[in-house]
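ugh ok fine here u go
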Amino acid sequence: MKFNPKDSTELASNGKERVLFLNWEQGVSQFQYYSPRIEKKDFHDKKKAMALFTKTVFIPNREMAVTGTNIGMILVWDRSLIIEGIGEQNEKRLIKIVTLNGLGSQINVLTTAHDKYLVCGNNDGTIRFYDFYFKLVAWFEDLYFSTIKSISFSKTEPKAAITDPQKLESAEEIFKCSDFLVTDESAMICMLQSHIFEEINPAKKKGHTILSGIKSSISAIAVHPRSSILAIAGSEGFILLWDYLKKGDPISNYEFFRKEESNTKSSEGKLKIFTAVEFTPDGTEILVAQHNGEIKIMDAQTGHFVKLNTPLKTSDRKGYPIT
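structure:
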């Protein structure tokens, strides 16, 4: 449910297949509402016609509103003075459909910033800024986010992404935004700043992690033999090293193994998830057991798996996971 920032008596909401625009009046106990008509002929192909709606937001200082979908496109609504079939004068109607995510990634978060940008947080971990003509202005990608769940902007003055005075003079349009927080499906909260968009060095194109959570259930825990470190394995294939005396954030987060290693399926079709972990006596390596019965050796300092000539398995028979 979103209020129209231009008119506090108007609200918008949506389900998976319909969008509602509601109005209220002082002293009236019921909302008045309407749902704009959508027909299959409004879409270019059958797949787009089957799209499900995710979020709806009003465009500041305009009559428009936009609705995000699960295939990366937006539906643009605007007020019409012409009565065409079903509907009343001044009701919003579908005026166009715009594809924002070419690869079809679902739009999970749809919001506006500084009365200037439409901001999309997507299923593939990307965040993109558009002007109100839906032209791409800035993008934050390759930041190792999982599915974006929330974006929240600070109330501070927007900062220019370019800080070099010479570049500022020559730039036609300068991207400016205040610092903002991003939350993803892995329970990570990260602060991003506008200058990250202009950074070329990959090491500097990272936000500041405020909180790092655990997405899935914990499948195994091992205690370091010589220090106050826990190795925590998640059922989806990640491993965290955490100091239980100092507490705070994990020392190391090897969650990328969930994406790179554990997403390869065994012949039985089951993910090679981690089921048990154990430190070696000197604590330099971690034995990692998988659902397919295979054991891997991981370097506790780097997180890299040791390459073995022959795979370590408890049994050559299929369907015997290590528990």
